[in-house]
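Input record, target 12 of the design panel.
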């Protein structure tokens, strides 16, 4: 009798577990389809918008390559690296919602960044103004790899890639005109195009490297890279379509800048509200404004507040 009851209980438990497993599987499968649809929709929409606002206004050509590794003090390469890393991080977090295996989530999300950036590079390849850049592709791969490798090694991001931007204002009329023509007028355009105002950072979670210390979990130390004096990709010189010199400022020095500053990991701020957690996760891609030490032109400069 006891054995019979035990077998019945075991059978009921087995059926119950099968139902739970089936229900969980169906739920995760639905989430996967939802996330996949959202990714496809966002990807298609963003690419269509990018084409309409950027590439459509420039003449097209046959697919070609070009070497731009020496341009813009390599700030554009830092931008590619940051973008691929950030897209990988965001995509991986979205896929985490589906409940798929950790490694699958890391690889699917991680490769999304380099894939998205590669499609943009293809569009560049058909634009007569630019071209397929192997330097850009390399930066994209490094960005996604930087995310994937940390997740696989530590199951977290101990080193975060971030960005900051401040709009440059010039009193010289020729620089104002050149900036408006080259970088656009709006803040949105300037933040994307004006490398003089961009800074790219790598912020380290100090607590994650010194777990037994009393360092606050939100405190980071950050190393930044910027550049100044750039009013052209290679030099501050421009001829119009008739061959006339329209801009020539060899007196303006082009140079790189390095920064050291404290930073804040916003994701370490405790909150139970999912909407706030999401907002902090997104905002954590931006460097927190703070005092900084700048090293440029072989000398140190103190910034009371830098962003």
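The sequence produced for target 12 reads:
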């Amino acid at each position: 009798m006891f054995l019979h009851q035990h077998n019945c209980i075991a059978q009921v438990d087995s059926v119950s577990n099968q139902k739970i497993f089936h229900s969980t599987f169906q739920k995760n499968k639905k989430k996967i389809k939802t996330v996949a649809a959202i990714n496809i929709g966002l990807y298609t929409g963003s690419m269509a918008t990018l084409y309409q606002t950027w590439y459509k206004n420039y003449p097209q050509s046959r697919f070609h390559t070009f070497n731009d590794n020496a341009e813009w003090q390599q700030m554009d390469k830092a931008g590619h690296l940051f973008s691929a890393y950030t897209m990988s991080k965001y995509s991986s977090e979205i896929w985490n919602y589906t409940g798929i295996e950790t490694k699958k989530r890391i690889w699917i999300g991680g490769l999304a960044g380099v894939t998205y950036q590669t499609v943009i590079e293809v569009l560049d390849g058909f634009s007569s103004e630019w071209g397929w850049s192997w330097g850009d592709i390399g930066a994209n791969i490094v960005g996604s790899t930087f995310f994937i490798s940390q997740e696989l090694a530590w199951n977290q991001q101990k080193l975060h890639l971030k960005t900051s931007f401040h709009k440059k204002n010039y009193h010289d009329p020729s620089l104002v005109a050149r900036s408006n023509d080259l970088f656009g007028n709006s803040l949105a355009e300037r933040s994307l195009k004006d490398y003089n105002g961009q800074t790219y950072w790598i912020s380290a979670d100090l607590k994650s490297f010194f777990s037994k210390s009393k360092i606050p979990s939100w405190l980071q130390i950050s190393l930044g890279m910027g550049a100044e004096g750039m009013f052209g990709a290679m030099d501050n010189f421009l001829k119009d379509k008739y061959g006339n010199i329209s801009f020539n400022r060899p007196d303006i020095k082009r140079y790189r800048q390095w920064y050291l500053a404290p930073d804040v990991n916003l994701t370490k701020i405790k909150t139970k509200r999912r909407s706030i957690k999401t907002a902090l996760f997104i905002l954590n891609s931006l460097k927190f404004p703070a005092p900084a030490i700048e090293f440029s032109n072989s000398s140190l400069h103190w910034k009371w507040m830098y962003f």
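The radius of gyration is 25 Å.
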